[in-house]
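Researcher: Please translate sequence to structure tokens.
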Amino acid sequence: MKKLLIYMIVFFSLNLFAFQEGEKLTFDISYGIINAGEASLKISSGFYQEVTPCYIIESRANTNSFFDNIYKVRDRIESIWDKNKFVTLRFTKKLQEGSYRQYRIHFYYPEQNFTIYTKFGRKTKEFKDEKMDIPEDTQDILSALYYLRRKEISVGDTVTINVTADGRNYPADVIIHKQEELDTIFGTKMCFLVEPILEGEAIFKQTAAIFIWLTADEYKIPVKMSSKIIFGSFKAVLKDAENVAYKKK
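Model: Translation complete:
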């Protein structure tokens, strides 16, 4: 169970009210018919280095006590996102998945177009730094979702955004396949079915295409995700939402 959750990425015209500060989305994670745990996405406000107004985007994924015996997961990913310029300032991943461990940090300097990529070595027990150039307006794999939610999208679009994560730069495409109705915690909603094409890792290691359903409105709330992973089929379904525009049914 390694690394997926959200890393859709695309954008057209601005919608400044797509999400509210304090929004928290909680998902049930299942593998086939087995309930495996829970994942969440939360966005709040703060100041980066006590100066720059920023959004703090946090993703957590945890298996439940039953699934811990099969494959224990305790993942935390955090993005510090400039509140005015909508570019990433820092991106941190701490993953614990079975025997696998990962601890990586990107420090971004968007005005100078470079990042310091810091990776912890399990054998050396030390951090190793690497300086990399980055393109304009680069995002990380978490901020990309919220960047997407501020944009207008249409069926048939393929949108590309620059992503820098895990020591790599790449243009990530998001394909807007179609609209379809889904039964959600908000009632029946028309949703966009989107497919992000990622080269880096998200939350859970996917082995096939990732599909994400976003409400087809100005909010673009992710309500469902699915993919194949290392040992089966993965699904995440939104089960709770705080500080969103809709009321639960």
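Researcher: Any highlights?
Model: The chain has two helices and 14 strands.
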